[in-house]
Amino acid sequence: MLTKLLSGDTPRSPVLAVLLIGILVCLALAPFLFPGVRSVDTAARICIFIVLVASYDLMLGYGGIVSFAHTMFFGIGAYGVALACTHLGRGFDALLVGSVAGALVAATLAFVIGLFSLRVRAIFFAMITLAVASAVAVLVSQLSAITGGEDGLNYRIPRELTPAFKFADGQILGARLNGKLLNYYLIFGSTLLIFLLLLRIVHSPFGRVLQAIRENDFRAEAIGYRVVYYRVAVTCISAAAAALAGSLYAIWLRYVGPDTTLSLEIMIDVLLMVVIGGMGTMYGAVIGATIFVLAQNYLQALMSVASDALTGLPVLPELISADRWLLWLGVLFILSVYFFPTGIVGRLRQRRR
Amino acid sequence: MTSSPDHLPTMARSSLSDRLAPYGPILILVLLVVFGFLAIPSMSSWLTLTVSGLAMGMMIFIMASGLTLVFGLMDVINFGHGAFVSVGAFVGVSFLLLLQHMTGAPSLLLNLTALLVAIIGAMLATGIMGWAFERVIVKPVYGAHLKQILVTMGGLIVVEQLIIVLWGPEEIYITRPEALKGAITFAGAALEKYRLVAVGIGLVIFLLMRWILRHTKIGLIVRAGVENGEMVEALGYRLRLVFVGVFMAGSALAGLGGVLWGLYQEVITAHMGNEVMILIFIVVIIGGLGSVEGCFIGALLVGLLQNYVAFLEPKVALISNIGLMVAILMWRPMGMIPVVKAK
């Protein structure tokens, strides 16, 4: 039953299994284990990034296609929900319409970009997505009449998902029984569902063909698979999943803006999560996203403390101040591509053999 | 006695479209200029826009040419190319700020000397940096596109952040040298002096590059290497060394482009390389990866189109480049002048 649910992809490493179960339990019981606004917020961010990173890994790790437009798809999903909530009024139907429309638009856009670039060379895709993503980001901040420009959009989600709604009095283990709790479980449940779905896709015959194409596209073509079709299809699926992650993010935050959904910085975060966790393994997305979001939330504070402690020295405090977070991410990124191309999950599985 | 066969071979001229095909890219450029002339009501604004489009195109060309050659020669795609643009701009501007007494003086000669010093400084710095970048970042990932894209992107982030560490996070505003400020009037159109200088520098670089590629031994090796690298190595040339040289030259050119671009915008930020990078990619893709001529024409197309459209319909200008790219790729999926055979 469990094997079936995981599509036959068991962790294959005791350490990894323990880690994954730990993460699952922590996320499933987060509001009760770690009560507090900030920690629940972190847990929700982890969930959302798991979906985003897993969908990216589907494209990068399984399809072998580098895209820089993943935050664009993420943003399309988020803006889909935001616009639907703004124009259709407060209700679950607006959330549904927004999410579905966002996913469809993202998939269509991915289809068009894919048709133009993937039929020639896969690396065109990386460059073209970078260009398109930046154009979309500029468009979103310019068309302020529709998107709210740089300020973004604030909107109302159904009352049942907000802290104002209480379905029972009292607290359980410090967690208030309000709409925010329901909202968290909506996100957690959707994450679990989408993740298992992606796992299913990866281990389907379709996923096998993708891996064959990643390893040797020429040979895959020779065996009789139309490489372009498979590549375009995987970008569409991946884009739709990313858009759904964006929708979840929009539902959780009740706000969208260019910085929170479309910036290149998120793209880099996602890249790093995939590489750290392990390309080409769905579990890598879980591990990568968890470690990264935790580090982002708690390590940055540590860095600023260290920087303050070193004031007076030349350059050094400047180098480790919290604003230079990205610098160290970049270094870490390069090193992990060189030395741990298979990431944490790859390492753990390797050791066992 | 045998009679000659009836079906004599005929020497048919190839069709007009076949004969025109090699000139297609240039024809598009001419068409675009003519279109601009027809669409823009006043002659003088057309002239102003054309000159500024050419200036912008030349600068993009300078920055993009290195990238396209590096790709053609070694199949290396460098997403960190924008880093050289930023570093070039920052080093060049630092020189200009140091030489303020020269740039502030109203003498053209002194101004140009200062500009030259800044350009040489920037090119040296980015050339050396290119060498280091090739050594540390690119060399370990030869032959693996996926890793190249990831690692060079990481390199771009690191360099960008280091610039912030060294020069501070604020954008730096600069003024152009005294004699290059303002505009001259020609046929009723105001032409900014600096843009004319940029066009001049761009043309010189293009012609020099063309001359090196066509008429020198090293150019021959580079062109042959783009065409078929293995064969060149089999003939005994160490293509790796040539490649490092081309990488350094390309980085230095990006640095030069950075100085020019910084003075053109009159403000530099650590993220400027990243922003220019997008234009560079568009140019390289529509030109055809590996082709210097294609890159040149592509850059001019992008520059001109952006200026015309910004004048005619400002909102559309944001996506005009993407539209251009889509149109060109529909016409020729490998870019206007495809050089690199699918490796």
Automatic annotation (TrEMBL), chain A:
It is found in: Cell membrane. GO terms for molecular function: branched-chain amino acid transmembrane transporter activity. Keywords: Cell membrane, Membrane, Transmembrane, Transmembrane helix. GO terms for cellular component: plasma membrane. InterPro entries: ABC_transp_permease, LivM-like. The chain crosses the membrane at residues 15-34, 46-74, 94-116, 123-146, 182-202, 228-252, 272-294, 301-320, 326-348. It is a multi-pass membrane protein. Its main location: membrane. This is Amino acid/amide ABC transporter membrane protein 2, HAAT family. It comes from Salinihabitans flavidus. The lineage of its organism: Bacteria, Pseudomonadati, Pseudomonadota, Alphaproteobacteria, Rhodobacterales.
Automatic annotation (TrEMBL), chain B:
The chain crosses the membrane at residues 20-40, 46-71, 83-102, 108-133, 145-167, 194-213, 241-264, 276-304, 316-334. The keyword Transport applies. This is Amino acid/amide ABC transporter membrane protein 1, HAAT family. Belongs to the binding-protein-dependent transport system permease family. LivHM subfamily. One of its GO terms (biological process) is amino acid transport. It is a multi-pass membrane protein. It comes from the Bacteria. Its main location: membrane. It is found in: Cell membrane. One of its GO terms (cellular component) is plasma membrane. Keywords: Amino-acid transport, Cell membrane, Membrane, Transmembrane, Transmembrane helix, Transport. InterPro entries: ABC_transp_permease, BCAA_transport_permease. GO terms for molecular function: transmembrane transporter activity.
